[in-house]
Design a protein that fits this description.
There is one protein chain. A hairpin with a 2-residue loop joins β1 (88-90) and β2. This protein has helices spanning 3-13, 18-25, 29-37, 44-54, 58-62, 73-81, 240-250, 256-262, and strands spanning 88-90, 93-97, 101-102, 105-106, 108-113, 118-223, 226-229. Among the domains are: 1-82, lambda repressor-like DNA-binding domains (434 Repressor (Amino-terminal Domain)); 164-262, no CATH class. α2 crosses α3 (29-37). 27% of the residues lie in helices and 48% in strands. The strands form 2 sheets. The protein has a 5-stranded mixed beta sheet. The termini are far apart. By secondary structure, the chain is of the alpha/beta class.
């Protein structure tokens, strides 16, 4: 077996795409393609890295013949059965990818270091991370944490969530942040259908120091069709029962849990 055949077998055996192996070696995908076709040969530095990635001896990788692993036969069997790929230290970073998968994704993929490092897995950690739980500068997933978090639940400096968003700037069905935009919002500036904040703008209900909404409850300003104003800043002086009665009069089908949340600070 020649080098290019060994490389292809080793790569496929570990479940790496050409792109993934190229990222580990800091080369282009085209370079991997050329090595596997036999039209080009890697330099010695890359051969050493390949031997470390796949756990094989450098001698057997370079010479024609069968592959020899850098462990005993028992160790080799253990390595093949072990559910995780060996962690890999590359130039300026670290990468770890689990061998076990779910829905076609590795259970864990960690790719951290300098530059734009991509991670994709059930749990993904990287500069750009995509997964069910993703952590990164840019993260996309069901639960995303990052500078920019996009997901069902998005948490970050900018959080964008289909269900819940938390961040300095938050956009979601339920949004909590310095600037919160959504359906149910809580923030210094809250804009939505049901908004609570220092400046609250709600198409239905707004509660805040300055409130603008169909029903507006405010301290300094309350601007709306139905208003409650408490200049003392003590919302406990406002009758909860009276506010709830007005809410149900204006929005009779509104969920009672949301009504209780919007009026919890009243007396």
């Amino acid at each position: 077996m020649q080098f290019h055949e060994k490389l292809q077998d080793l790569r496929k055996g570990r479940g790496f795409s050409q792109e993934e192996l190229a990222e580990r070696l800091s080369v282009s995908r085209q370079a991997i393609s050329k090595w596997e076709s036999g039209s080009a040969y890697p330099e010695i530095e890359k051969l050493v890295q390949l031997s470390e990635i796949f756990g094989v001896t450098l001698d057997s990788l370079m010479k024609e013949g069968s592959i020899e692993y850098g462990r005993s036969e028992r160790g080799r069997e253990y390595a093949e059965d072990f559910p995780f790929h060996r962690p890999h230290w590359g130039r300026g970073g670290y990468e770890y990818k689990s061998k076990r998968t779910l829905f076609g994704l590795p259970l864990v993929h960690i790719n951290i270091g300098f530059g734009m490092r991509k991670a994709k897995g059930i749990l993904a950690i990287g500069t750009i991370a995509r997964g069910f739980l993703s952590i990164g500068v840019l993260s996309v997933g069901l639960l995303s944490l990052g500078v920019l978090g996009l997901g069902l639940v998005g948490i970050g400096a900018i959080g964008v969530g289909l269900l819940l968003a938390i961040g300095s700037i938050a956009l979601g069905t339920i949004a909590i942040g310095a600037v919160a935009i959504g359906i149910v919002t809580l923030g210094a500036l809250a804009i939505g259908m049901f908004s609570t904040g220092a400046l609250a703008i709600g198409s239905h209900i707004a509660v805040g120091h300055t409130a603008h909404g169909h029903i507006a409850i405010g301290e300094a300003v309350a601007n709306g069709a139905r208003t409650f104003l408490e200049p003392s800043g003590n919302f406990s002086l406002i009758s909860r029962a009276e506010v709830q009665a007005v809410i149900y009069e204006e929005f009779p089908n509104l969920w009672s849990g949301l009504v209780r949340w919007m009026t919890f600070m009243f007396g």
